[in-house]
Amino acid sequence: MGNDPRGFGDLRWGISLAEIPELSLIEPGERFKAYTFKNAPPQLGNIKVESVKFHAIDDQFARVTIRYQGEETHKLVMNYLESTFGKVDLGRGSMIRGLNQQYTWRGTETEVDLSYRGLGERGFITVESRVLSPAYMDILSEHSH
């Protein structure tokens, strides 16, 4: 990743999403909460997408998940991500195989993962804090016992 954003848009990792007036709580939980924009359509840059969710762990902003559909949208998303985070390195962590594509951009504080399935033309992006997001797995494993 050429330029680590240390968050998503103007939101920095670790902030309290509850204090952002433009966001609305859509998934309340004890340790996990999800938010979305109140009055704005879901977008990645200027690209219309199906959904954008902001996730907090213990009231700290840790992850964004974005869903989109369509080959044309996928091309726009790839162009946006490559112009924002750098050209895709098709080395370790990335693959193109048949109709499934997976790409990863890693920075010092942020990791961006994109998965796209050609069958159904569905895309899923995760932008997450490399420090805070591992807490998801820790907490989930605690509750699975």
Describe this entry's structure for a reader.
An 8-stranded antiparallel sheet has the order 3-4-7-8-12-11-10-9. Strands 1-2 form a two-stranded antiparallel sheet. It has one domain (7-143): Protein Transport Mog1p, Chain A. The longest helix is centred in the middle third of the chain and has 15 residues, at 71-85. Strand 11 (110-117) and strand 12 form a beta hairpin. It has helices at residues 71-85, 134-143; strands at 7-8, 11-12, 23-27, 32-37, 43-44, 47-48, 51-57, 60-69, 95-97, 100-106, 110-117, 122-129. The N and C termini lie far apart (36 Å). The model has no long low-confidence stretch (mean pLDDT 86). 21% of the residues are buried. It has 2 helices and 12 strands. It has 145 residues and is of the alpha+beta class.
From the spread of the alpha carbons, the general shape counts as globular
The structural class is alpha+beta
CATH class: Alpha Beta
**Strand order across the largest sheet:** 3-4-7-8-12-11-10-9
Radius of gyration: 15 Å
Instruction: Please estimate the helix content.
Output: 10-25%
CATH topology: Protein Transport Mog1p, Chain A
Low-confidence stretches: none
* Overall CATH architecture: 3-Layer(aba) Sandwich
Quaternary structure annotation: single chain
Main β sheet profile = 8 strands, antiparallel
Q: Could you give the distance between the termini?
A: 36 Å
